[in-house]
Design goal:
Helix 8 runs parallel beside helix 11, helix 12 runs parallel beside helix 14 and helix 16 packs parallel to helix 18. This protein is α/β, with parallel strands linked by helices. The strands form four sheets. Strands 1, 2, 3, 4, 5, 6, 7, 8 and 11 form a nine-stranded mixed sheet that branches. The protein has a five-stranded mixed sheet with strand order 12-14-18-19-20, with no helix packed on it. The two termini are 42 Å apart. 37% of the residues lie in helices and 20% in strands. The chain has four domains: 143 residues, Periplasmic binding protein-like II (D-Maltodextrin-Binding Protein, domain 2, 3-Layer(aba) Sandwich), CATH 3.40.190; 134 residues, 3-Layer(aba) Sandwich (D-Maltodextrin-Binding Protein, domain 2); 65 residues, no CATH class; 118 residues, serine acetyltransferase, domain 1. InterPro entries: DUF4214 (IPR025282), PBS_linker_sf (IPR038255), TRAP_TAXI (IPR011852). Pfam families: DUF4214, NMT1_3.
């Protein structure tokens, strides 16, 4: 008997149990199918995509925002549970709606994280001020319990342990995220990468009186595009024909309907899954349009094809995916906002109303139009010595556009968990200045310059001011502006 392998995540994560539920349903027919399913454990759900792409597993649970850029190599089999954005407050505090949180201290988590980026947009639509922290979830839950903050944002599959803990101590209240708040988050240009699915989250685990609406990142069961159709069809059919059993196997799946299984917001469905949906009479949705087809008023996805092409995305947030690294292509953003892409074979794509071009090593964004964008971009190089991620870059651009000073943004970078993990919590002034010279200018500092900046800090100067000054040096500005002339490169 042949076998196939599945991965969901660590045994401590709900994704492991969800993958186990699929394996259990599939193995109910293993004798008839002549195929058995095995489950392996990964270090965390974030590792699953790499395991799938490397061929070490056949099927993996992958969060939708990780799937962008893999349109040519991967296909969706089933859409499953979500990581729901959850706003948690104490019942005794009296907040029942987003409007009640106006002026309150709402902790949205680490700066630049997908959770913070999503929460900030949703809360901004309701006029709610937010607090950005680098605290781990357990410390934020303690701060809420102690009354140091009025609400906290969580992102994960329900039931969430922190909700149960707060409920046991104070009575938990979960705030609806609907209407304008959900629309504000879902309509942002970043929603192409951060995939949102409106959901009425399950309430049975908390004993609540009514569902609460929210948005979140969907998880999908994914296979490589070359996985045999008959195997994929058997996997999809095992869930479609036993949907009631699927819902009973884990609380995160309790509100999954047949129609939910067939909604893919990023990748096309595998042909084997399509056959299963059609045989079961279950509708399924495939994003985008055929390669090279005309654009539409919704978000379209196009893939690289040979020869000269004119690709018009129309309205919506549209993406073109290329099969190689950016270095193999020559990209020019023209004054009329069209984009010329000379491909490795010498042919040229002309892109009209295309907001992003995805390559195997990153993505070029063409839709960023902010006077503060370059300054925000340079902060990543100065503080982290890396290319920005799209969600974080858009978050900081929006924050600075909204009135956050560049110095305050720099302070947020320096207080972030990433900065502390890179350099340590006890980074001295001398090492801090050395890191800026290397990150920004790519060289050790000259003795006079190093002495000046170290002296400035030792006399009480703020590191955030020094980071801003370094990232605004004409040498660095000239290099970065030239690099950004044809789009903003993100990891």
């Amino acid at each position: 008997m042949s076998s196939i392998s599945f991965v969901g995540g660590s045994s401590r994560e709900p994704e492991h149990a969800v993958a186990g539920a699929i394996v259990r349903l599939f193995n109910a027919d293993r004798v008839e199918n002549g195929v058995t399913a095995d489950q392996i454990e990964s270090g965390a759900w974030q590792d699953n995509l790499a395991l799938l792409r490397s061929g070490r597993v056949d099927f993996a649970l992958v969060r939708a925002d990780q799937l962008v850029g893999h349109e040519t190599e991967l296909r969706v089999v089933l859409s499953l549970h979500s990581h729901a954005l959850t706003i948690l407050t104490r019942e005794q505090d009296g907040s029942a709606t987003l409007a009640d949180l106006a002026g309150r201290r709402v902790d949205i988590g680490p700066a630049g994280s997908p959770m913070a980026e999503l929460a900030a947009r949703a809360l901004a639509a309701a006029g709610v001020n937010v607090v950005v922290s680098g605290l781990p979830a357990e410390d934020r839950a303690q701060a809420l319990s102690d009354g140091a903050i009025d609400a906290m944002v969580l992102l994960g599959a329900h039931p969430l342990p922190d909700v149960r803990a707060i409920d046991a101590l104070h009575g938990a209240r979960l705030i609806d995220i609907d209407g304008a708040a959900a629309a504000a988050a879902s309509s942002d240009p970043a929603s192409r990468t951060l995939t949102y699915e409106p959901r009425d989250s399950p309430i049975a685990a908390y004993g609540l009186d009514a569902p609460f609406s929210t948005i979140g990142y969907g998880f999908a069961l994914v296979a490589r595009a070359d996985m045999p159709d008959d195997i994929v069809r058997m996997v999809a059919e095992s869930a479609l024909t036993r949907a009631d059993s699927l819902r009973s196997l884990h609380p995160a799946l309790s509100d999954i309907g047949l129609d939910d299984l067939g909604v893919s917001t990023v990748l096309p469905f595998h042909d084997g899954a399509v056959a299963a949906f059609e045989a079961a009479g279950v509708p399924y949705g495939t994003p985008g349009t055929p390669p090279g087809g005309p654009g539409s008023a919704v978000d379209d996805s196009f893939v690289e094809q040979p020869g000269d092409r004119l690709v018009d995305g129309g309205e919506g947030d549209d993406a073109m995916t290329y099969s190689g690294e950016r270095s193999g292509y020559s990209v020019t953003l023209r004054d009329d906002a069209t984009v010329s892409v000379v491909k490795p074979d010498g042919s040229t794509d002309t892109l009209i109303s295309i907001e992003r071009a995805a390559f195997t090593d990153g993505t070029l964004l063409f839709d960023i139009d902010s006077a503060n964008a370059s300054a925000a971009y340079r902060l990543y190089g100065g503080a982290f010595d890396r290319t920005p991620d799209e969600g974080g870059l858009r978050y900081w651009i929006a924050a600075i556009d909204g009135g956050l000073g560049l110095r305050d943004a720099a302070a947020g970078f320096l207080a972030s968990r990433e900065f502390i993990d890179l350099y340590g919590a006890d980074l001295g002034d001398t090492d801090f200045v050395s890191a800026l010279y290397e990150n920004v200018l790519g060289r050790p500092g000259e003795p006079e310059g190093r002495a000046f900046w170290i002296g400035y800090l030792q006399e009480g100067g703020a590191r955030a001011d020094v980071l801003v000054q370094f990232t605004q040096l004409p040498e660095f500005v000239g290099i970065s502006d030239a690099a950004l002339a044809n789009g903003f490169w993100v990891a």
